[in-house]
Amino acid sequence: ADLAACDGAEQRNGQLTKPPGALGRLEELAIWYAGWRGSARPTLEAPQIVIFAGNHGVCAQGVSAFPSEVTVQMVANFEHGGAAINQLAKAFGASMTVHALELDRPTEDFTKAPAMSERDCVTALQTGWDAVDPSADLLVTGEMGIGNTTSGAALGAALFGGAGEDWVGRGTGVDDAGLANKARVVDEGLALHASRDPLEILRCMGGRELAAMAGAIAAARAHRIPVILDGFICTAAASVLEKTQSGALDHCVAGHLSAEGAHGKMLEGLGKEPLLSLGLRLGEGSGAAAAIGVLKAAVACHSGMATFAEAGVSDG
Amino acid sequence: ADLAACDGAEQRNGQLTKPPGALGRLEELAIWYAGWRGSARPTLEAPQIVIFAGNHGVCAQGVSAFPSEVTVQMVANFEHGGAAINQLAKAFGASMTVHALELDRPTEDFTKAPAMSERDCVTALQTGWDAVDPSADLLVTGEMGIGNTTSGAALGAALFGGAGEDWVGRGTGVDDAGLANKARVVDEGLALHASRDPLEILRCMGGRELAAMAGAIAAARAHRIPVILDGFICTAAASVLEKTQSGALDHCVAGHLSAEGAHGKMLEGLGKEPLLSLGLRLGEGSGAAAAIGVLKAAVACHSGMATFAEAGVSDG
């Protein structure tokens, strides 16, 4: 972050026509955003949403309530403007692109083999990196991939410690037996793939859309574009970066707390407090997109308000 | 609420391209909004913010960190577009009007006399009622009034029970001695004004801007306009309606949890769960305005998404 911009933003914040601290977390958000944008009085006008879709070999283990065909069907829904994320993009003035990542060639079943070859993983990371528009001033990464909460749980366990049962959740809606099955699948993955190198964990138990999200979030850092993290899968993908280099997610804020059980624990592991907690568990970047309004509110107040001197208001 | 519209909205919600319940509270919000708007597929395009300002005789008791002159100065700031609420109105496409309520004639010091005469109280209620645009599709009521957290605390204690110390907070920033002083002032008010009739409590210990907010929220009900409640003062004013008639706030949702200490207890008393919890304590309707984005997100998803049949997506 740009320390001069942070200082300038902090100074400006202290002069705005409100009691000190009265805008709560909006003040802190605006200063954080100012630092990454390199301006003490930034604007937020070009948010970008990138959605990555991938299919998962681990679906052969019966981990999802929905069939794998739904991934490609939902990509068509994104392209035709019918999904939740399309409505949220429109509501908050965000551009949106959708990247279907070799849906007819799912990852390998990670209970049997690494999910991706090195080449596949690097290709997905690169696709994610390239998907980011350098002129965007905010990034949301979303995903669609039937079976990917199981990948997310495997990443959580491998990156933060614990077993399958500590990290699996109901995803799109599995029952108790389905939940136990997901835990078994994660435990088998953890046993088969012993490396605890974060990128190797991503390759062995992640998926193309997770790798692409990690690539996009890293690209945003290079372009000084702040990121709003979405829920469980997005946070799992982002955690690969943080575990590779501490501080790698300083340009990211947690958009929401997902209803997917272990998301709160993962955010705690990253030291991130979510902006919203509304029980969403859809993916698609929907929770992060819903939080765009909060960040817009923060930046609008910070950059638009009059100072005590400008407004002729007594400052107490 | 319109039960046919609620039913229609609920049915539509079940057909949208997402796992059941995956949009969490956004689903419940959209159905609630649909019911009040009388349409199973409503739009949210004309939010209105009304700000009421009043001065408080109880400032003579030293209850605020800011001088009373700040009320009129902030009204000018609202009129010139420099306050936080102006930026939020712009960010969320809301219209905004400001109503200065006889600022040169403060209410009486409620430790010595009723804050308002019956005539003053009715005039303020009527001003609030008349301020609501019947063609709005969402209402936010905000306030400005140096000293009014003390009025809010007095209303909280009188309406929900308890003593001054249970309901006072730091407002714009009083210290420990200031907090104890506010509790004393509230206790003196409670002792002097024995009636526990909600409207009489409003008249004796409220203020013009609180009465106006109550009038506006009642008018919104008559016009079937959903309301996002703001923080401590707004919720105190709204509570007068709920205590007058149970269910009177069914058309209202709590926009945020204020950092003003007793707001959470007041929302619990009303059975309302806040949409946001970001530590705001500014007033002006700012917390409610920040939550407009959440409601917009909910309505956009509900009314804009494709159904499983429309999108050709398998529904699990």
UniProtKB/TrEMBL annotation, chains A, B:
Keywords: Cobalamin biosynthesis, Glycosyltransferase, Transferase. SUPFAM superfamilies: Nicotinate mononucleotide:5,6-dimethylbenzimidazole phosphoribosyltransferase (CobT) (SSF52733). It is an enzyme of class 2 (transferase). It catalyses: 5,6-dimethylbenzimidazole + nicotinate beta-D-ribonucleotide = alpha-ribazole 5'-phosphate + nicotinate + H(+). It comes from the Bacteria. Pathway: Nucleoside biosynthesis; alpha-ribazole biosynthesis; alpha-ribazole from 5,6-dimethylbenzimidazole: step 1/2. Its EC number is 2.4.2.21. Pfam families: DBI_PRT. Belongs to the CobT family. Catalyzes the synthesis of alpha-ribazole-5'-phosphate from nicotinate mononucleotide (NAMN) and 5,6-dimethylbenzimidazole (DMB). This is Nicotinate-nucleotide--dimethylbenzimidazole phosphoribosyltransferase. The lineage of its organism: Bacteria, Pseudomonadati, Pseudomonadota, Alphaproteobacteria, Rhodobacterales.
